[in-house]
Hints:
Elements: E1 6-11, E2 19-24, H1 32-40, H2 44-51, E3 61-65, E4 74-79, H3 86-101, E5 107-111, H4 122-137, H5 149-154, E6 161-166, H6 169-194, H7 202-210, E7 218-222, H8 224-229, H9 233-239, E8 247-254, E9 264-274, H10 294-308, E10 314-324, E11 336-338, E12 344-346, H11 354-369, E13 373-378, H12 383-388, E14 393-397, H13 400-413, E15 417-419, H14 424-428, E16 437-438, H15 446-455, E17 463-467, H16 490-500
Parallel strand pairs: 1-6, 2-4, 2-5, 5-6, 9-10, 9-13, 12-16, 13-17, 14-15
Antiparallel strand pairs: 3-4, 7-8, 8-10, 11-12, 14-17
The structure holds ligand BES, manganese (II) ion and zinc ion (ZN).
Ligand BES binds at residues 274, 292, 349, 351-354, 379, 381-383, 440, 446, 469.
Amino acid sequence: MRQLLDIQFVPLSGEAAPTVLVLADDGVAFGSSAKRIDERTKGSLSKAAGAAEFKGKARSAIEVLAPAGIEARRVIVMGTGGTKTELDRLRLGGAAYGQISARKAETAVLVADPVDPGQVSEEVFAADLAFGALLRSYNFDKYRTKKSEADEEEKHDGLRTLSIQCGKPDAAAKAFASRRATAEGVFLARDLVNEPANALGPVEFAERLSELKSKGLTVEVLDDSDLKAMRMNALLAVGQGSVRPPRVVVMQWNGAKSKRAKPVCFVGKGVCFDTGGISIKPAGGMEDMKGDMGGAACVAGLMLALAKRNAAVNAVGIVGLAENMPSGTALRPGDIITSMSGQTIEVLNTDAEGRLVLADALWYASDRFKPRFIIDLATLTGAIMVALGKEYAGLFCNDDRFAKELEAAGDATGDKVWRMPLAKAYDRLIDSKNADMKNIGGRYGGAITGAQFLQRFVKDTPWAHLDIAGTAMDSGRTEINQSWGSGWGVRLLDRLVADNYEKVEK
Length: 506
Ligand code: BES
Ligand code: MN
Ligand code: ZN
């Protein structure tokens, strides 16, 4: 397990550190504690703000070096202007971490006494800043044995302890505990996506998930002979060209008061590497297909987060793991396979493999668990990036109320979703002359025909499909994520559950 940034909550005017960060609003007004620092330094902070034309814009910062009258070697002043929402506070915390870590401090103090915390209590304000800082602090460098001097300069793992000064440190620490649990889930998802495929094939992925037993989850690993016995032929077909056998992992968290309460269910595409198979992909950028298990990574991270924060819900996480390779044993274009559901599929393109994996995983999920809902996550199509870019994930849903819950959770967390259509006319595009369906539609609407394919394996359950090809990896560095693997979806689904499925038990 990785070493998390150590975050402490301490009283205002507690011990100083060489690096101190204080907040100022867009009138360049300080909270009481920062004001005291300004006074003790004979107004250095306000003078510097004036000289630098600092206006307190959200996340903008100036640095005051070697101020007289206090121990700190530097004081960073960061603007909070317009900070209103939870996401604003996370981004502020992330930006604060960025400023501090860029200065290679090992310990630092963040003075969280805003002039006005907005709609929330001061402890929630401090906990949200801490959450943002923690999310920002993640980096993946386990395979770097040497660091050049230049790398040393930019090193982002210098900060070990961040002390957050705030009005109610005990209450803030309490509020932070569940956020930290969620962050651990995000980090697991990022780790899994960032790992190269030589280190993380289906077998190794399943082993990593087995370790979650120590966190209170039930974990079952179905191996290839189990999958054969269960007739998961669509999933097996994707893996048949690889020497590394497929796996399905079933994780369960039983946190609801009643053990028998219907579970919520999450299903993830876990293609550990997607070459395209016989319908092979072009070489350029193929390395990114190590992240084609981003859906499975999110499901694993979510299950860890739910367990770590002791969520009052019964939840099932299912991941379908396979490696899509071309070889003498590989699936061919034109092959017809019989899925676990009994429906037959004509494979016209072996690169449309994610839907084959999910067809069996979704069928198994609804058949075995009869869940309250199923959400699948998959890096399913390039077409979703043509439609939405990397800003929103595509949401396909057979239930309007459920779709609204997901949209609300997306707006709150910043893991945003945009609803896409499902309709009979699109469904017809995957009808096949030779089998019940084919695995590709025509030239247009590729993300939609992918979703229509999946819908044929869920039936009457409330269901949502999230196409995360644009968001799970390489979606751009942000204030709260500096990693290639983004951990997208863990905070979204954690929030969906917390806001809608923990209070009421049906
Ligand atoms: N894993 C890919 C989709 C993908 C592409 C994810 C780029 C992330 C980045 C998926 O298996 C795939 O190859 N989809 C095909 C489907 C097509 C053959 C119908 C695609 O999008 O081209
Ligand atoms: Mn593919
Ligand atoms: Zn794929």
